[in-house]
Every structure is written in C-alpha cells, then in structure tokens.
Amino acid sequence: MNRRDTIKTMFIGGIGSSLVLTSCMQEQETAVADLQKGDVLHYGRTPQEEARDERLLSSNFFTDDEMETITILSDIIMPADDQSGSATDAEVPAFIEFISKDMPEHQTPLKGGIMWLNHESNRRFNKVFNSLGKDDQLTIIDDIAYPEEVKPEYEQGATFFSRVRNLVTTGYFTSKIGIEYLGYKGNIPNAWDGVPQDVLDKHNMAYDENMLKNSIKMEERGEIMDWSNYKV
Q1: Rama region for 91: left / alpha / beta (φ>0; ψ in -120 to 50; rest)
Q2: Rounded distance between C-alpha atoms, residue 229 and residue 227, angstroms
Q3: CA spacing 20 to 30 A to 38: which of 147, 158, 179, 211?
Q4: What average pLDDT is seen over the chain?
Q5: Which residues contact 103 (CB under 8 A, 6 or more apart)?
Q6: Highest-confidence range of 14-18, 200-204, 217-221, by mean pLDDT?
Q7: Is the pLDDT of residue 230 over 80?
C-alpha cells in the first residue's frame, strides 16, 4: 500500500476527521474556488454568512512565502499519482488559507510552525525551507512526519506537521478530486433502480410487478410521478 492509499484508509476510518472542522468544508472550498474565478457565491448561505465569507476571502492571512511553504508541504503530503491530482490541484493551500481565517485557533500554530521549519532549515543548510531542494526538504520532513518515532528536539515540528497533515487530508478529501478518488457516491437522488435481485432472492422477496412497472423508470427519473390511479 502506498502513502496515498494509507492516507485514504485513515481518512475513511475516521482519523482524517479527528480535526473537527465545524464549518462545512465542501462549501468553504467551493467558495474559495468560485471567488478566485470571480463568480458570484451561491452555495446555500444566508446573507449574513455570505457577507462573512466574502470578508474572510477578501484578505490574506499568510504571506506569499508562507503560502509557498504550505503549498510545498501539501504536495509532499498528498502528491499527484496516476489516479488523481495533487493537493495543489485540489486547491488545498487556498482551503488552508481560508480555514486559518475562519478558525483563528490555527493561526499561531501554523505561523509558528513555519518559523520552526525555516529555523531548522537554516540550522542544517543555511537556507530557508522554500529554497531547499526536494531531497533536503524531505530530510527535515522525515524527522517530524512520524509522531511515534520523533526525537524530543523535533516535537514542536512534529506537532506542526501533524496539524498541516490533518488540514491537507481534510481539504483534499472534501474536494472534488478527493471525493472522486475515494469513490464515494453518496445518495444519488432519483437514480435508484431498486434492491439488487440477489438480495431479494436471499430474503425470498419480490417487487409487486405493478409497482415496479410504475415506480422504477430510470428514463423518467426527472419527472414527478402521478400516483392517482395506482392501486395496491
């Protein structure tokens, strides 16, 4: 199992949801994407909520350098593969920017964590993290990515990286790309074609032919059914 599949399994199992985000992630990410495209926001908000979202979206919390760091970390955690795009493709950095304003408790830990990352990078390589090559970046990440194995001197970095990982997985798997990767279908309205035949056979059940004839017509699923002449 590769790293992406491991994270997928963790997320489905509930670990990815250990970061309790009380706002609706899917709607927030849609808001970020829509605003960046210059579209009007229409996603089930009250006028007061829309005004608040637009206020949050109109300002930037992270500097350009900090956003570059978040982008690098996001793609280290969730790189592209042959099945789906990377965290950047799913607009996860924009998601983290928005969440940091929507939930201010993330602000100090994230800013402080980026400072720690640059300090550690300067200590090892005399460069800030963004200026390092990929291999040097990963040598630092390898020391903070596994909380159960982290050395005491890297505990602050490990705490920061765990927070970023939670945000990245939450943002990714609530994005269109992430949901498609999970294969989650959810409830599809007006597109139910009945209980599978093997299940009916197992329980010695069968549909009433009249009901089946009148109620399950996939080609008419967008129409409103008239039951006035139906008899049981």
Answers
A1: left
A2: 6
A3: 179
A4: 81
A5: 21, 22, 23
A6: 200-204
A7: no
Q: Identify which of 95, 63, 69, 83 has the alpha carbon closest to the alpha carbon of residue 169.
A: 95
C-beta neighbour count of 38 within 10 angstroms: 6
Beta strands in 37-121 (DSSP E): none
Query: What would the two tokens of residue 209 be?
Result: 């032919």
- Alpha-carbon distance 48 to 35, whole Å? 17
Q: Tell me the CA distances in angstroms from 152 to 73, 143, 148, 157, 159, one per residue in order.
A: 22, 11, 11, 10, 11
pLDDT over 60 (residue 11): no
Tokens of 110: 């994230």
pTM over 0.90: no
- Show me where the domains of the chain are located: 3-182, 188-232
Q: What is the DSSP letter of 185?
A: -
Q: How confident is the model at residue 7, as a pLDDT?
A: 55
